[in-house]
Amino acid sequence: MSKEVTIDTSGIYYKELNEQINKIIKDNLDLELITLNNVLGQRFIGNGISKNNLTIVINGIPGGDLAMFMKGPRVEVYGNADHAPGNTLDEGKIIIHGSSGDATGHSMRGGSLYVQGSVGYRSGIHMKEYKGKTPVLIIGETAGDFLGEYMAGGIIINLNMQSEDTEFVKNSMLGTGIHGGVIYIRGKVNKSQLGVAADIKEFTKEDLEKITYYIEDYCNEFNYSDEIKNKLLNSNYTKIAPISSRPFKKLYTPDIR
Amino acid sequence: MIPSTVPPKYKITIDHDKCILCGRCAKECAWDAIRKSKDKIITYDNRCGSCFRCASMCPRDAITIIENPSQGRKHPVWTPEARQDVLNQANSGCILLSGMGNAKDYPIYYDNIVLDACQVTNPSIDPLREPMELRTYIGSKPEKLEFEYVEEEIDGKKVKKSKLKTKIAPNLKLDTPIMIGHMSYGAISLNSHKAMAKAVKRCGTFMGTGEGGLHRDLYEYSDNIITQVASGRFGVNSEYLSKGAAIEIKIGQGAKPGIGGHLPGEKVSAEVSMTRMIPEGSDAISPAPHHDIYSIEDLAQLVRSLKEATRWKLPVFVKISAVHNVAAIANGIATSDADAVVIDGFKGGTGAAPKVFRDNVGIPIEVAISAVDDRLREQGNRNKVSIIASGGIRNSADVFKSIALGADAVYIGTAAMIAMGCTVCGRCYGGKCCWGIATQRADLVERLEIEEAADRVSNLIGAWTHEIKELLGAAGINSIESLRGNRDRLRGIGLNEVELKALGLKQAGL
């Protein structure tokens, strides 16, 4: 029974590595920390792991579908992540000290995913929420196009720290098909950058209150100074939300005569 | 003024001599097509979809529903239906929404295929007195078996014992090659799900959850349930995935190939919202593609991801619609660690699909089975995946022919619903199914008596199973394994040369 385990993953195939991780979790009930060193493209790390009070530290670059279906643990990546980290995440926290690929946070239904750098296309796609579970995706720098497509719930915050909040962001097709949840973008967004079903809404005091906790938490995770934190909190945000929770209501007519 | 009234398709006639004004019909009709005034039953024909609930429940048999003869002038091209659709869309500007399966008059190849039977030289078998093996294993099979020999000492003697070295992939064990396909809780009622779950448990087979999550009341049937992961990822978490006996990734559906699905907010009740894990009353939108699958490699990644999440203990199926290049797609799937490929033909049913898709997109399941079976054999991949065929399977002969064409097992959907009382009125998307099947309205759901419906469905599967045994016996075969892909026991009739070639069949008489 140990509380901390370290694995040198060099040369280990993903299947074997994940088998090892699952066995370690099963054998060590008090386990609190797994450190994976020299990770190089191994996929599915943390998939389906259901355990609280466990931290998985990844030194290196994990492969696709990091922490998919995960429930509970905290995953910290010191490096970039491949596509779809946090895919269908249930609960837990993923911190990426780097950038991540396409479809980051695909279909997240809970937990949070903080990316220090940029994310690829279609990130936050089809995030959803239910009752107590509201997934949160925070992106430090740029997000690829199609951010928050088909979004059904949750919160996406795109901080665009590489630019000033007075500039227009470069994303297009923001929130196509969005029917729930909300996207906050630091900076300006033109209506023409929105996808069908998305709308720009007024960024209110309540919205600021809503994101303050997450921005503070984000800054703590990445050790940002109070100066940066205050700058982020005092920035201009554009709020993007659905026009309706029933975007397809008027699309169909019954084939009844 | 431009007249926009569409003549009603059906006409409800009340025999006022027989009618005792009990008002039962008005209570039974969820579509408000019948109302009772003080001394008369009043009908609103334009709301009637001929679901037959009123007529079935009338204690005096006083109700007749007929097709409305007053549909305007007859025309071979501009049929009443064509004209009515134009009017409907000219009025609304909307996509026509429909339910059930393809309603166009395409050839049904099953009906042009005949079966073989033994005479004299190879005696037929009577399943009453000889065992008939219908057991079917769904999943990946090893290419070959390898054994290792271990020396053991038994009673002082050294004995060499053989042990299986090859790792066998997880398979589903079916007592009959008939399963019930994926119809989601949300599209259909909880009572229908419960009835089907009871039935499949009794019959030693499986049912699919569809993309609606798994209601906790069905947890007790989890050994007979196949969970589904589709593009909306509704209700999917690790608990759900491990609750089933297998997982199915839905890429496409025969009734609407190439598009996703929209469960309208009206059907997202409190309970449905719970199993789908989305807010009550919001549209449940499944996008057309899975956004983490843009290539066959990405599909392989999702297959492996699901296997990782369930520790490689469960078989993973991939369901696709039968489309023009189905063989190549199925072959790709076979190389992805998937354990079965489900092919859904264009006659497959649905709770809701745009009519233009339901009636025009996809190909018949019969040709898809033979194309996939052929391609997988050519590529040496047939053992890697099982083939599950679905979409318009109406009777045991269709099951038998599907297996002889190359399938391992079939999914039925509409047939199971008809067993439970569905009258194929095709308005499942309306949420007012008078038979308590495709609805979430509590008063309507209650109409479906679970035990009785379970009996009907298990009776149906049992009867077909029995018929398949008889057909096998007649063909002189005592195991379904020997029928699989055995197209020599089929002949085509009334088909042209190209059709015969596509099906891989000989002409009857040859």
Automatic annotation (TrEMBL), chain B:
<feature type="domain" description="4Fe-4S ferredoxin-type">
    <location>
        <begin position="10"/>
        <end position="39"/>
    </location>
</feature>
<protein>
    <recommendedName>
        <fullName>Archaeal glutamate synthase [NADPH]</fullName>
        <ecNumber>1.4.1.13</ecNumber>
    </recommendedName>
</protein>
<keyword id="KW-0314">Glutamate biosynthesis</keyword>
<keyword id="KW-0560">Oxidoreductase</keyword>
<dbReference type="InterPro" id="IPR013785">
    <property type="entry name" value="Aldolase_TIM"/>
</dbReference>
<dbReference type="InterPro" id="IPR017896">
    <property type="entry name" value="4Fe4S_Fe-S-bd"/>
</dbReference>
<keyword id="KW-0521">NADP</keyword>
<dbReference type="GO" id="GO:0004355">
    <property type="term" value="F:glutamate synthase (NADPH) activity"/>
</dbReference>
<keyword id="KW-0028">Amino-acid biosynthesis</keyword>
<keyword id="KW-0285">Flavoprotein</keyword>
<dbReference type="InterPro" id="IPR017900">
    <property type="entry name" value="4Fe4S_Fe_S_CS"/>
</dbReference>
<feature type="binding site">
    <location>
        <position position="25"/>
    </location>
    <ligand>
        <name>[4Fe-4S] cluster 1</name>
    </ligand>
</feature>
<feature type="binding site">
    <location>
        <position position="19"/>
    </location>
    <ligand>
        <name>[4Fe-4S] cluster 1</name>
    </ligand>
</feature>
<dbReference type="InterPro" id="IPR024188">
    <property type="entry name" value="GltB"/>
</dbReference>
<dbReference type="GO" id="GO:0051539">
    <property type="term" value="F:4 iron, 4 sulfur cluster binding"/>
</dbReference>
<keyword id="KW-0411">Iron-sulfur</keyword>
<feature type="domain" description="4Fe-4S ferredoxin-type">
    <location>
        <begin position="40"/>
        <end position="68"/>
    </location>
</feature>
<dbReference type="InterPro" id="IPR043578">
    <property type="entry name" value="GltB_archl_type"/>
</dbReference>
<feature type="binding site">
    <location>
        <position position="58"/>
    </location>
    <ligand>
        <name>[4Fe-4S] cluster 1</name>
    </ligand>
</feature>
<feature type="binding site">
    <location>
        <position position="22"/>
    </location>
    <ligand>
        <name>[4Fe-4S] cluster 1</name>
    </ligand>
</feature>
<comment type="similarity">
    <text>Belongs to the glutamate synthase family.</text>
</comment>
<feature type="binding site">
    <location>
        <position position="29"/>
    </location>
    <ligand>
        <name>[4Fe-4S] cluster 2</name>
    </ligand>
</feature>
<keyword id="KW-0479">Metal-binding</keyword>
<dbReference type="GO" id="GO:0006537">
    <property type="term" value="P:glutamate biosynthetic process"/>
</dbReference>
<dbReference type="GO" id="GO:0046872">
    <property type="term" value="F:metal ion binding"/>
</dbReference>
<feature type="binding site">
    <location>
        <position position="54"/>
    </location>
    <ligand>
        <name>[4Fe-4S] cluster 2</name>
    </ligand>
</feature>
<feature type="binding site">
    <location>
        <position position="51"/>
    </location>
    <ligand>
        <name>[4Fe-4S] cluster 2</name>
    </ligand>
</feature>
<dbReference type="Pfam" id="PF14697">
    <property type="entry name" value="Fer4_21"/>
</dbReference>
<feature type="binding site">
    <location>
        <position position="48"/>
    </location>
    <ligand>
        <name>[4Fe-4S] cluster 2</name>
    </ligand>
</feature>
<keyword id="KW-0408">Iron</keyword>
<dbReference type="Pfam" id="PF01645">
    <property type="entry name" value="Glu_synthase"/>
</dbReference>
<dbReference type="InterPro" id="IPR002932">
    <property type="entry name" value="Glu_synthdom"/>
</dbReference>
<keyword id="KW-0288">FMN</keyword>
<keyword id="KW-0004">4Fe-4S</keyword>
